């Protein structure tokens, strides 16, 4: 009888150790998943910040290019006018025509730039929507797993795993 109770105690102890080992592995896996998720978020934010810096640099560079382009075009057209030896009135009209043409070219470039920025913003919005949906799916799966296994794991879960908002989804005892 004593041997049987010792064997039974030993078996219970082994089962408890095995359950504790499984819980520890699961906790480590959860910790790794959280760390990976955090790393991905940080990388995404850094990527967005880099993109914003690049956009600002490109905008400044584009403004400089526009200014130089405008100056170069005015010089070119002025030189052509001098070579043609146009009268003052014709030269003034030609200069206005050149400025109008340059302004149209600048408007086209600005529009292309605005389209690029709009496309970047749409890509960012899609990325944020995808990330939000991913987080919703993760939260749904977390709640689903908790609903299925919370009663078996209740004594083994470390503090912070269960949130106050989980109480409405789970059959947990209410605090008094």
UniProtKB/TrEMBL annotation:
Q: Quick one: a GO cellular component term?
A: nucleus
Record has Cytoplasm as a keyword: yes
Q: Which UniProt keywords apply?
A: Cell projection, Cilium, Coiled coil, Cytoplasm, Cytoskeleton, Flagellum, Meiosis, Nucleus
Domain Trichohyalin-plectin-homology span(s) in chain numbering = 10-159
Question: What is the annotated localization of this protein?
Answer: Cytoplasm, Cytoskeleton, Flagellum axoneme; Nucleus
Q: Name one GO biological process term.
A: meiotic cell cycle
Instruction: Please give the Pfam families that the UniProt record associates with this protein.
Output: TPH
| Coiled-coil residue windows | 20-140
What is known about what this protein does? Microtubule inner protein (MIP) part of the dynein-decorated doublet microtubules (DMTs) in cilia axoneme, which is required for motile cilia beating. May play a role in the control of meiotic division and germ cell differentiation through regulation of pairing and recombination during meiosis. Required for sperm flagella assembly. May play a role in the assembly and function of the outer dynein arm-docking complex (ODA-DC). ODA-DC mediates outer dynein arms (ODA) binding onto the axonemal doublet microtubules.
Q: Which family does it belong to?
A: Belongs to the MNS1 family.
Protein's name in the database: Meiosis-specific nuclear structural protein 1
Q: Which organism is it from?
A: Culex pipiens pipiens (Northern house mosquito)
């Amino acid at each position: 009888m004593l041997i049987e109770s010792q064997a039974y105690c030993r078996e219970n102890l082994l089962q408890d150790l095995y359950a504790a080992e499984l819980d520890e592995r699961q906790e480590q896996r959860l910790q790794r998943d959280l760390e990976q998720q955090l790393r991905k978020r940080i990388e995404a934010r850094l990527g967005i910040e880099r993109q914003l810096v690049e956009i600002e640099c490109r905008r400044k560079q584009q403004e400089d290019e526009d200014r130089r382009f405008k100056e170069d075009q005015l010089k070119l057209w002025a030189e052509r006018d001098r070579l043609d030896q146009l009268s003052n009135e014709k030269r003034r009209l030609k200069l206005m025509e050149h400025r109008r043409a340059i302004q149209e070219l600048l408007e086209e470039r600005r529009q292309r730039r605005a389209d690029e920025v709009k496309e970047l913003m749409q890509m960012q919005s899609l990325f944020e929507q995808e990330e939000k949906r991913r987080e919703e799916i993760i939260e749904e799966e977390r709640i689903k797993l908790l609903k299925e296994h919370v009663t078996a794991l209740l004594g083994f879960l470390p503090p912070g795993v269960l949130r106050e908002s989980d109480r409405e989804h789970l059959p947990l005892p209410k605090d008094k």
